[in-house]
Amino acid sequence: MNQVEKVNLLDFDRQGLRDFFAQLGEKPYRAEQVMKWIYHHLEDNFENMTDVGKALRAKLEAACYIGPPKTMFDKGAADGTHKWLLGMDGGNAVEAVYIPEPTRGTLCVSSQVGCGLNCQFCSTATQGFNRNLATSEIIGQMWVAAKYLGNVTHQNRRITNVVMMGMGEPLLNFDNVVKAMSLMRDDLGFGLASKRVTLSTAGLVPMIDKLSESIDVSLAVSLHAANDELRTELVPLNKRYPLAELTAACQRWIARKPRTSITFEYTLMKGVNDQPEHARQLIKFMRRLPTCKVNLIPFNPFPGTRFERSEADVIRAFQTQLLNANILTMLRRTRGDDIDAACGQLKGQVLDRTRRQAEFQKRLAEDAAHAA
Ligand code: SAH
Predict the structure, then answer these.
(1) What pTM does this model have?
(2) In this structure, which residue's CA is closest to atom 13 in ligand 1?
(3) Fewest beta carbons less than 10 Å away: which of 207, 237, 279, 316?
(4) Which tens digits make up the pLDDT trace of 107-118?
């Protein structure tokens, strides 16, 4: 049997793994033993699973494998941020980024090859879309990073937090993302608390409800504007799910999980959404979600973008205006931008199926011709 016909164990959550072992005629606790080897010891070779009997090891060898994505390239930034380009299939690759801070280490994970949402200020959008990632390709990003970093589960973890804020819209790859996040949360997986696993969405309203019923994780919503006209321009998905519907979905989320909060991400772009009137609109929006908070992200530029980062004093004034209205407002520091690893700079390699890459390249060429 070749590798192609074998099953990748990284595609299973705990229940899936138990079912698979049952199919092999094995006891469920054997599945859990192997799960510990995979996620606590980051072992991908059955040979080394010393408390698994020789016969079972041979059986596993024949039926399955542990297949994390291949590291095609990886690079560290001056500030300790680390980025991996991980090969998926054919010419596709996605990026994962590790961001160390004094009290935590955050891994930013991708959910799709490219993205179909076409948010105007995001570099991933210029790449177009190819496909959803498999569960193994999502949890595999964490497996690769954890192994590289020498992560030890349950003690002195290097990866203390995961954010589904890499390439793609995670709620458009719902089942695989939920399975991967359940492995991040599971004690026999990476064992992270619900507060430490965050899914970020551009605002797919029905899926926000479904998520709250499926798994206990934290929610972030990419807002970027608190008036419909501007938000539709920046995040075209807003046309389908305008602010009133998004607000209602967020209120339902809070009602179901009363002790939690939602983080609203707001990327600040010069002259676009960074003026006092925009802050006032945001304050009004946040009044309907009083337990929630705002995370301001200075815009990170990428080649060909028509947007610019807001000036430092404008960013400060915007934050102060929100704080004065008693809205918990954090400013995200820009990390890893010297290796294009900052928010909105992830590109990977996408075999585009949407023609968006071609359109973007054409516009770049036209801009260059104009400039010449
Ligand atoms: N599709 C999901 C997951 C991607 S998260 C979502 O939209 O939430 C990536 C985060 O970075 C989002 O908040 C996104 O709006 C933000 N972002 C995108 N492009 C950016 C840029 N150029 N500069 C700063 N932040 C950006």
Answers:
(1) 0.94
(2) 222
(3) 316
(4) 999 999 999 999
